Amino acid sequence: MSPKKIHEATRLSAYIKSKSDLYNVHKSIDIGSGQGYLSHLLVTRGDMKVVAIEAKEHNCHESEKRGKIISEKLGHEGEFETIPMIVTKDNIAVFTREPTFLVGLHTCGDLSPICLKLFLADENIKGVINVGCCYHHLTEYVAPEAKDQVDEYLIRVRESFQGRSIDETLTENKDSGFPLSEYIKKKHPWFFLGRLPRTLSISEPQPSHVIDPSLTFRKFQYRAAFQALLQEYFPHYALTFAIGNRIKRFDCFGNYAEDAMKKMNLKSTFTKDELEGFYQERFKGLEKMSAIFWVMRSSLSGCIENLIILDRALFLAEQGAITEIMTIFDKHQSPRNIVISAFKP
């Protein structure tokens, strides 16, 4: 395991074990178990029975292989199995014929709300312990009252990678990943976040930003300038391609833009000096303003994440569950560090 995974799996498994003893539940279903880091600790250190459910067969294979090695080294067999499948309310019932916890470490997008709903739907699932991530992959319900705001938002964001609407996540389906609580749906039907703000919720400042803030601001500025270059000279690419963080050279804009065009397989007649001139003429004087905007933008990250977490807690509390939220990881090691737990009275 990487130091990050060791930190996460060790802390979360200890927390699950403490709840296991408190509620006298000694079986866990690990949803989105990956290669089984959390599952194996629950077996070897938590003395729990574990069913690890993972959609990717490669991860299942690695988890089984790793489990055999651990058993041989520690002489600890335990009750453990890995199941390759996508979990649903119908197929999970096979594994919940006794009191069970539903656990998940960094369940992506809608998988977190799915876990919360499975907990409420199955009487034998006595608790859910979940650390979510990838909020930008959530599906988001928008009420009819929000239509005007949504239309304006979609015009502004236009399209993204491969020509998809940047908010294909917005839906009229009430059974979506956000919001879950009736409080938001009924009292604030005009409210919505959208994919861009949800992406911002996982874009908080990192320690590396403090070490070299000038590089951080330069990256942000170059990406914005390059997007403007595409919009002016290559408008089709501006709508359909996202370069993201795949460029590594930031010594000057000319080198950055050349590398970006190579990544895009974009044939251009611009020389490096011409690209640098484009930047110097249009964007050099905006660097301070860009840095201020980056700081203001990043300061909203935690607020948006907390809103999503609180919506989940409200949803569980509305159904009568005993609910708690706490930070469980060091944020510098694991930015998505909030665990939400719920238990049946």
Which second-level CATH architecture of the largest domain applies? 3-Layer(aba) Sandwich
Shape, per Cα inertia axes: globular
Oligomer state of the chains in this structure: single chain
Largest sheet: 7 strands, mixed
Q: In CATH, what is the class of the largest domain? A: Alpha Beta
CATH topology of the largest domain: Rossmann fold
SSE order in H/E notation?
A: HEHEHEEHEEHEHHHHHHHHHEE
Q: What is the average of the pLDDT values? A: 87
Low-confidence stretches: 159-164
The CATH superfamily of the largest domain bears the name Vaccinia Virus protein VP39
End-to-end distance: 36 Å
Strand order of the largest sheet: 3-2-1-4-5-9-8
Any idea how many domains?
3
Question: Strand tally, please?
Answer: 9
Strand content of the residues, in percent?
Answer: 5-15%
Helical proportion? 40-55%
Total count of helical runs of at least 4 residues: 14
Structural class estimated from helices and strands: alpha/beta
Protein name: Methyltransferase domain-containing protein
Domain Methyltransferase: 4-140
Pfam families: Methyltransf_32 (PF13679)
Organism: Stentor coeruleus
